[in-house]
């Protein structure tokens, strides 16, 4: 009996040592992975903390655009296309609270004309096809390819992302179209027929009086739009509670780019804005890249049309943010990031299923 007890005791001690060794190995492995995520070995951007000014060639000469890398993951690299046009990467600073802990490498990027990049004054540069070629030049400079390249575009960035995929999808591993429909006329119709009538009648009447006169730069007009429309459909918070990155993004907005391509505000596209007739609904079925479309219940974009995008591309999934608006990375943050990260991880692990949202 004593012999049996001795054997059992030795066995338990041995198992304990094995478990401790395994746990120690796992801790070492996790620590090593954590360190690798911030490893700058063989990277040329350490001196600038991940920042690179990338030269791009345009029909009007060479300029530089600003990028900043966060993390180090050879399998997952996400390039963030900001909205506007003419906004900045700052509206994505909330990604810092979610992507690093998931080991996702990502790149902030200010497009040409935006605050941290060169800002030439030639309006002919504010052209969709030219911006597509700019993204391709940035991709090459950053070393992104079909084995690791995820393109995320929100609002105008979604337009740019769709247009890029239609020409260069062979370079993509995954595509995310966030808070953007596939047709500007449809966007305008939704604003005119669904969202505008939800405004207080007197407020709407006053807004329309300025629009009828095309007095878009009037401070009263802009204040009415921000206080009554933006707080319901851009970011669902009182203006005095807007996150600092949003305030900085609006402060740094380049009006030359924005007005030329979008018009005076997010209250639809007005005047002779160059994006006024953009529509790729009849082309989306050509996109075979795994694609996530993100829509929000209170968005300036019809969420049903975002869901339609997910069904129209060949390998699509839809993420709905029930409490979110146009910037749902802030006003429906938990659902937004859980769904976005799941999509990226599913594609990486080859577990992505169409309509798996």
TrEMBL record:
<dbReference type="GO" id="GO:0008233">
    <property type="term" value="F:peptidase activity"/>
</dbReference>
<protein>
    <submittedName>
        <fullName>Proline iminopeptidase</fullName>
    </submittedName>
</protein>
<dbReference type="InterPro" id="IPR029058">
    <property type="entry name" value="AB_hydrolase_fold"/>
</dbReference>
<comment type="similarity">
    <text>Belongs to the peptidase S33 family.</text>
</comment>
<dbReference type="GO" id="GO:0016020">
    <property type="term" value="C:membrane"/>
</dbReference>
<dbReference type="InterPro" id="IPR000073">
    <property type="entry name" value="AB_hydrolase_1"/>
</dbReference>
<dbReference type="InterPro" id="IPR005945">
    <property type="entry name" value="Pro_imino_pep"/>
</dbReference>
<dbReference type="Pfam" id="PF00561">
    <property type="entry name" value="Abhydrolase_1"/>
</dbReference>
<dbReference type="InterPro" id="IPR050266">
    <property type="entry name" value="AB_hydrolase_sf"/>
</dbReference>
<dbReference type="GO" id="GO:0006508">
    <property type="term" value="P:proteolysis"/>
</dbReference>
<keyword id="KW-0378">Hydrolase</keyword>
<dbReference type="InterPro" id="IPR002410">
    <property type="entry name" value="Peptidase_S33"/>
</dbReference>
<feature type="domain" description="AB hydrolase-1">
    <location>
        <begin position="78"/>
        <end position="332"/>
    </location>
</feature>
């Amino acid at each position: 009996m004593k012999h049996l007890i001795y054997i059992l005791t030795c066995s338990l001690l041995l198992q304990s040592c094995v478990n401790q060794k395994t746990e120690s190995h796992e801790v070492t492995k996790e620590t090593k992975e954590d360190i690798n995520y911030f490893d700058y070995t063989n990277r040329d951007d350490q001196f600038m903390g991940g920042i690179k000014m990338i030269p791009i060639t345009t029909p009007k000469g060479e300029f530089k655009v600003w990028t900043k890398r966060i993390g180090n993951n050879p399998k997952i690299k996400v390039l963030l296309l900001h909205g506007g046009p003419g906004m900045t990467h700052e509206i994505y600073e909330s990604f810092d609270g979610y992507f690093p802990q998931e080991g996702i490498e990502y790149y902030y990027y200010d497009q040409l004309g935006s605050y941290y990049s060169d800002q030439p004054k030639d309006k002919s540069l504010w052209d969709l096809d030219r911006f597509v070629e700019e993204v391709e030049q940035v991709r090459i400079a950053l070393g992104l390819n079909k084995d690791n390249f995820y393109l995320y575009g929100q609002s105008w960035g979604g337009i740019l992302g769709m247009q890029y995929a239609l020409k260069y999808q062979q370079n993509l591993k995954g595509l995310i179209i966030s808070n953007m429909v596939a047709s500007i006329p449809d966007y305008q119709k939704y604003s005119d027929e669904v969202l505008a009538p939800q405004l207080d009648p007197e407020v709407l009447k006053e807004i329309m009086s300025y629009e009828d006169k095309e007095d878009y730069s009037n401070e009263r007009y802009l204040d009415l739009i921000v206080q009554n429309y933006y707080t319901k459909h851009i970011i669902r918070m009182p203006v005095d509670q807007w996150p600092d990155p949003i305030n900085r993004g609006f402060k740094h907005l380049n009006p030359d780019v924005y007005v030329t391509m979008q018009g005076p505000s997010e209250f639809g596209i007005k005047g002779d804005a160059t994006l006024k007739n953009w529509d790729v609904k009849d082309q989306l079925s050509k996109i075979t890249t795994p694609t996530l479309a993100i829509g929000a219940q209170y968005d300036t974009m019809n969420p049903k049309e975002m869901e339609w995008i997910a069904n129209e591309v060949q390998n699509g999934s839809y993420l709905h943010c029930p409490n979110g608006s146009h910037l749902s990375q802030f006003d429906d943050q938990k659902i937004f990031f859980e769904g976005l990260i799941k999509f990226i991880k599913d594609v990486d692990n080859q577990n992505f299923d169409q309509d798996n949202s």
